[in-house]
Design a protein that fits this description.
alpha/beta, D-Maltodextrin-Binding Protein, domain 2
Length: 331
């Protein structure tokens, strides 16, 4: 009798173990990541080639492509204050093969200051934040201005004679401009007569200043390199509290007493709403990996950017919070 009971218990134990093993195998199969990528990926940059978003996206895309053994094409779709290119990326099929090179101008700033914007920045898949960079106030080489105080004095005395290049009020480069103008207004200086000239991207603006078409503008450290190295523009300020390693001799806005002009830009990756969580995880994991690679860090440094990884959730929260801060600044 005891032997029969023992045999039954043994059989029951074997059945339980077998079922447990099968369940583990099933879970393992269900948890396997999708096979990705299996075809070329298009990264749409809604700004011109040579600008901050473009250059950071190219550095990151090259490193990701090498990791995956894939083809990643960075496609520039400038114009329309970045909205057409952003919309094209966000209305594409959410399959992971059309990605947005996302930045302040295509998320937080357009939400805060844009009008009739055909998308909601909360209605996209935030994949990962990649890098950050400061903004630089650049001027024509033939101007005698040496600081933001000189610019303020010029605007105070002859605002109608100042031609200020910018990206139309819905790009990352425009946030420091708005901060500076707000600071001027707080000092009782009328900025309404300053002539604002719009350009489609940072590299176009830097070229315009270099060519003397406008007097001053704010561009990213990634955009200014070629014209600055050629001696065609002067740098008079860099946003933030601390000097930037790529431009150690350029005084910060805070050093010059402009404590509210501190905005720094970012570039990340986003996709249409509905992108598979498995694909998002692949992007998150690989992006974090490449940003720890000394070669990638060096490539970013060459274009004036620094790694600033944030996963999907943290990137989303960062953007939404930033949009709220900029809305308050607009008021």
């Amino acid at each position: 009798m005891k032997n029969k009971i023992g045999l039954k218990n043994h059989i029951l134990l074997l059945l339980i173990v077998t079922l447990f093993v099968f369940s583990l195998n099933g879970c393992s199969k269900n948890n396997q990541s999708v096979k990705y990528p299996t075809q070329p990926i298009n990264v749409i940059c809604p700004w011109s080639a040579g600008g901050s978003t473009d250059l950071v996206a190219r550095v990151a895309s090259k490193a990701l492509a090498e990791k995956w053994g894939a083809v990643i094409n960075v496609i520039n779709k400038p114009g329309g204050k970045g909205i057409p290119g952003t919309l094209e990326a966000l209305t594409s099929k959410p399959d992971g093969y059309t990605i947005l090179a996302d930045a302040d101008g295509s998320n937080a700033i357009v939400a805060a200051w844009g009008t009739d914007v055909p998308f909601d920045i909360s209605e996209r898949t935030y994949i990962a934040k990649v890098a950050e960079f400061p903004w630089l106030f650049i001027i024509r080489t033939d101007l005698a201005w040496k600081s933001l105080n000189d610019v303020a004095e010029a605007i105070k005395n002859n605002p109608e004679n100042i031609k200020w290049g910018w990206l139309g009020g819905t790009a990352g480069a425009d946030a420091p401009v708005v901060q500076f103008m707000a600071a001027l207004e707080a000092k009782g200086i009328d900025t309404s007569k300053v002539k604002m000239v719009t350009y489609p991207g940072g590299s176009d603006l830097a070229t315009a200043v270099a060519g003397g078409h406008v007097d001053i503008g704010v561009v990213s450290s990634t955009s200014v390199g070629p014209v600055y190295n050629a001696g065609k523009v002067k740098l008079i300020a860099i946003t933030g509290k601390e000097r930037f390693q790529s431009f150690p001799d350029v005084p910060t806005t805070v050093e010059q007493g402009w404590n509210t002009v501190t905005f720094r830009g970012h570039v990340g990756f986003a996709a249409p709403k509905g992108l598979s969580g498995d694909i998002v995880k692949i992007w998150e994991r690989t992006t974090e990996e490449i940003l720890k690679d000394p070669k990638v860090v060096e490539e970013l440094a060459k274009i004036g950017a620094v790694p600033a990884f944030a996963n999907s959730e943290d990137y989303r929260n960062y953007v939404l919070n930033l949009a709220d801060e900029l809305k308050a600044l607009k008021k």
